[in-house]
Design goal:
Blueprint (H helix, E strand, L loop, with lengths): L2 E9 L11 E8 L4 E6 L6 H16 L7 H9 L9 H22 L3 H4 L7 E7 L8 H4 L3 H13 L4 E4 L15 H18 L4 E5 L6 H11 L6 E3 L7 H10 L4 E3 L5 H11 L4 E2 L8 H14 L3 E2 L7 H13 L6 E3 L3 H6 L10 E3 L12 H5 L19 H11 L1
Parallel strand pairs: 4-5, 4-11, 5-6, 6-7, 7-8, 8-9, 9-10
Antiparallel strand pairs: 1-2, 2-3, 4-12
Helix pairs in contact: 1-3, 2-3, 6-7, 7-8, 8-9, 10-11, 11-12
C-alpha cells in the first residue's frame, strides 16, 4: 500500500466561527483506494501559502511511501532542509498528513487508531468546554460579563461537563507579556467567584490566558485566583520562555498548563525538564501528530505529568485527540467544541454525552467526513486562523472603564 494522492480543503465554520476562521483539512488516498483524513492546526502563514507547504511536504516525503513507516516519515519532515529542530509550519503540515496516515492504517485493518498504538487504556474520556455565548446572550457583552459566564457555566454543568474554561483577563498583544491592570485582576476574580457560586463543586474551573502577561504580572494574577482553586492556570506568559514560566509554577499553588503553541516532544520535554508545567496541552494537528505525542505521553509519565489535548480547530483534530487520549494512562481532559457545524462535518459520528466521550468503535479516526459540506463552506477572508492585537494595552481607558463599572 502506497500513498498516492493529496487534496487540501480549506473550510470555514459559519459565524460566529467557534474553532477559528478556517480549518485546514487534508484528504490522502492510497493506491488501494483507502482515504485518510487529517487536519493541520492553524499556522503562521495564510491558508493558500500553507496549502503549498502541505503539498510540498507530501510530494517530497509522503508520495509513494507506505503509511506504516511513521517514524521514517517523521524523521524526513523533521530534518527537512537540514533543520532537525522544531519548525511550527513544517510540523503543522506534517501533523495533518500523519493523522491521515493513521486513519488509513486503521481503515485498512478495520480497527480504531488506538488499537494500533497500545490499545484501549480508557473506556471514555472526560471532556471540557470553553464557555461560549448562549443563544440569548449579547455576543459583544458576553466576554466581559461574569454574570453571563456563570449562566453559561450552569448550563454546561447541567449537561454533564465537570470542567469549564474561560479567559477574561485582558488583551493578547504582539508586544509580549504585560502587567495586568487592576481591572484585569478584578474582572478575573469576579468571573471565578460568579462561576464558582453558580456551579459549586460540580466542576473544575480552568482559567485560560494566552501568554499575555509578564512573569511578575502572571504571579500577581495567579495569586489573586488561588482561593477559587482552579484546576489550571493556562499559558500565563509567552510560550517561548520556559525558564520564566517555571518561576511562576514555583510561586503559585495553581497547576500550570501549557502547550497549544508548542510542537514536537523536544519543546514539550523542555517544559517538563524546567518544571514549568505539569499539565501539557498538545494540539495534535500542530504538535507532530499522534505517534510523536504518544512519545510525549510516555515522557510526561516519567515526570508525573498529565495530558489535556487542546482544541481550537475542527472535528478531525478532535477525533485524533480522542484516539490518542483513549490510548494513554495520563489523559486528564480533552477539549471539545459543541457546535452544529462541528458535529455535522463528521456526521455526528463522535459526540459528548454527559460530559464524557466514549471510546470510538469504528475504524481509523472513527468518523465519517461530510466532504460536500466542507467544500460548500470555503474560506474567503484574508486573516489568519488566529491573530494577536497590534496596539498596546491602554491602561488609561481601562481606568475609566473601571470607574464607570463602579
Amino acid at each position: 500500500m502506497k500513498l498516492q494522492d493529496l487534496d487540501v480543503i480549506i473550510t470555514a465554520p459559519p459565524a460566529p466561527g467557534w474553532g477559528g476562521r478556517y480549518w485546514i483539512l487534508v484528504k490522502v488516498t492510497t493506491d488501494t483506494g483507502i482515504v485518510g483524513w487529517g487536519e493541520c492546526y492553524a499556522s503562521s502563514v495564510g491558508p493558500d501559502a500553507m496549502t503549498y507547504v502541505i503539498q510540498d511536504l507530501f510530494q517530497r516525503y509522503f508520495l509513494g511511501e507506505n503509511p506504516e513507516n511513521m517514524e521514517r516519515l517523521f524523521r524526513r519532515a523533521y530534518s527537512s532542509g537540514f533543520t532537525q529542530r522544531p519548525d511550527l509550519t513544517v510540523m503543522g503540515a506534517f501533523s495533518g498528513l500523519e493523522i491521515a496516515c493513521w486513519d488509513i492504517l486503521g481503515k485498512d485493518r478495520d480497527r480504531p487508531i488506538y488499537a494500533l498504538i497500545g490499545g484501549k487504556m480508557n473506556d471514555r474520556l472526560r471532556a471540557y468546554t470553553y464557555l461560549y455565548p448562549l443563544p440569548h446572550h449579547n455576543l459583544d457583552a458576553f466576554w466581559s460579563s461574569a454574570e453571563m459566564a456563570a449562566d453559561c457555566a450552569s448550563v454546561m454543568v447541567d449537561k454533564g461537563y465537570t470542567a469549564i474554561k474561560f479567559d477574561p483577563a485582558g488583551p493578547y498583544t504582539m508586544r509580549g507579556g504585560h502587567m495586568p491592570s487592576m481591572r484585569d485582576i478584578s474582572q478575573s476574580v469576579a468571573f471565578c467567584r460568579a462561576i464558582r457560586d453558580a456551579v459549586g463543586n460540580r466542576a473544575d474551573l480552568l482559567f485560560g490566558t494566552h501568554g499575555q502577561f509578564s512573569t511578575a504580572g502572571a504571579i500577581r494574577l495567579g495569586t489573586a485566583l488561588e482561593s477559587f482553586s482552579p484546576l489550571w492556570f493556562e499559558e500565563p506568559i509567552p510560550p517561548d520562555n520556559v525558564r520564566e514560566m517555571a518561576k511562576i509554577a514555583r510561586r503559585i499553588t495553581t497547576p500550570i498548563a501549557t502547550g497549544e503553541r508548542l510542537t514536537t516532544k523536544a519543546e514539550f520535554a523542555e517544559v517538563l525538564r524546567q518544571g514549568a508545567a505539569n499539565i501539557l496541552q498538545p494540539a495534535l494537528g500542530r504538535a507532530g501528530g499522534i505517534w510523536e505525542m504518544k512519545k510525549l505521553a510516555a515522557i510526561a509519565e516519567v515526570h508525573n505529568a498529565q495530558i489535556a489535548p487542546h482544541l481550537y480547530a475542527g472535528p478531525i483534530e478532535w477525533a485524533a485527540n480522542i484516539q490518542f487520549g483513549i490510548s494513554i494512562p495520563n489523559c486528564l481532559l480533552v477539549e471539545s467544541i459543541e457546535t452544529d457545524f462541528h458535529y455535522d462535518l463528521i456526521k455526528h459520528s463522535l459526540k459528548v454525552e454527559g460530559g464524557f466521550i466514549e471510546a470510538p468503535t469504528k475504524s481509523g479516526l472513527g468518523i465519517e467526513v461530510d466532504e460536500i459540506l466542507a467544500r460548500a463552506n470555503p474560506f474567503t477572508g484574508t486573516g489568519l486562523h488566529l491573530e494577536m492585537q497590534d496596539k498596546p494595552c491602554d491602561y488609561e481607558t481601562e481606568k475609566f472603564l473601571l470607574k464607570d463599572r463602579h
